[in-house]
Predict the 3D structure of the following.
Amino acid sequence: MPLDSLIKNIRNIMRKDAGVAGDAQRIEQLTWMLFLKLFDDQEQYYELKDPEYQSPLPEDLRWRNWAADPEGMTGDELLEFINTRLFPTVQDLAVGGDPRAGIMRDVFADANNYMKSGVHLRQVINELNQINFNKQDDRHLLNDIYEKLLKDLQNAGDYGEFYTPRPLTQFIVEAVSPQLGETVYDPASGTGGFLVSVLEHIRATQVETHEDEETLQSSLYGTELKPLPHILSVTNLMIHGVEIPDTLTRDNALARPLTDYTAGDKVDVIVANPPFGASVQDGIEQNFPTEFRTKETADLFLVLFMHLLKDGGRAGIVVPDGTLFGEGVKTTIKRKLLEEFNLHTIVRLPPGVFNPYAGVNTNLIFFEKGEPTQEVWYYQVPLPDDLNNQYTKTRGIRHEEFQPVKDWWHNRTETEHAWKVSIEEIRENNYNLDFKNPNQAEEETARDPKELVESIEEKEREILDALEKVKGNL
C-alpha cells in the first residue's frame, strides 16, 4: 500500500476514536503498536537464525498471537486484553539477563493506550499488519512512515523540541565525521535522529563485515528523559537495523554530578541538539561546579559536552543565539570552551529552522578538545530565495541548502557567506561570539516577537543566576 494511503487510513481511524486527542496522543498510540509489530517481525528473523531463541514476552503477548489475525480479538475483548493483560505484564516484565526484556519494559514504562474503541483499535492493527519488516521493500516503507511520524512531532506542541530536521542532523554528522570504532554519544537524544545519521554515515563508507556492523552498533549511545521520544528513538534504531538498542537509556543526563564521571565515561564524538529556552529541574545545577551553575538547560548541556569529550574528541551541536551573545555564566562557559577547545566553526542558520516549536535563531558549533582556539570561522547559511523571512512548518530546511557550506568546509576562504574572527577580537569583545557577517550589508529586520520574549527571559535567568551566587557567598 502507498505510504500516504496507509498514514491517511490510520489517521482517519484514530480521529473517530474518542480517546485520542491531538497529534501527540496519536503519535504515542501508534508508536507502541508499531514497536510491538516491529519486535515480532524481528523475532521471526531470530527464530530462523536460532531455533533455540526464546522471546522475553509470554506467548499470549506476542503480536502474532493476539494481533496478527485480522479476524482476531476486537471490541471490548481486545480493549480488556490490552489494558489489563498486555500493559501491566510488560511494564512489570522480569528482565533477568535479557537486554530485550529490559528494552521492552523501559519502552512501556510510561506508555498509554488512549484508544477507547476496540473496534477502531483492531482497524489500526490491521493496517499495520500490511507491513512486514523482514521484506526489504516494506522495510523502506516503514522507514518512510516513521520519518513522517517523527516530522509530525513538529506540530505536536512541546514535543517539537524532540525533532531535529534530518538535513541538519546529516550535515552535522558529515562535518564531525565519526569513524568506525569511535564512541558516539547524544546526551539529549530525543527521537534518535543524530544516532541514525551516524549509522548511515559510517555504514556508507566504513562497514564491510558483520564484525564491523557489531562494532558500529555497540559504539552508539543516547540518553533521553521523556518517555515518548525514548520509545521513538528505540524504534527508530530498530528500524535502521540495530538489533538490540540497549545503549539507549531513559535518564536525565544532567542529573549526574560531573565529579562522578570517570575516564571510562569519556567519548570520542558528541552530536546533539540539546533543549534550549527552558529551565532545569530545581537542584540540577548543583551537579555542576559553582562557576557554571545556571538554570539554562542549553548552558548546562554545553558544560556536560565539554566534560565528556576525550582528548582529541570533537563535537557538533545546536545552540541558540543566546549562547553566543549571553553574559554572566555564559561568558564563563565560553571562556572555558575557547581556552581548552578549538572552536573552529560556527554555522549560523536562517530563521525558523525549528518552526513551529521554536522561533529563536539557532547556530551549529563545532569544536575539538585539546588545543585552544586561535580563530573561529563563521558561515552564514542564506535563507532560500523562495522564502520571505523564515522557514515555515510546511517549508522546512532541505538537504541541498547545506551543499554550499559542505563545498566550503575543506577549502575555506572568505566569501559573501564566510568570514573568520581571531581569538584576540573575541577576547576584546568579552567572549561575545555574536559576530555579524562583515561581507554583507546588514539588513534592518524586525525581530520575531517570540525571540524578543525569549531574549528577555534569558536576561532574567542571568539575573537570577547572579543573585543565587550572591546568596551563596553570604
Remarks:
- The longest helix spans residues 22-49.
- The beta strands are 184-186, 220-224, 248-250, 267-272, 309-320, 341-348, 362-369, 375-380, 418-422.
- The radius of gyration is 24 Å.
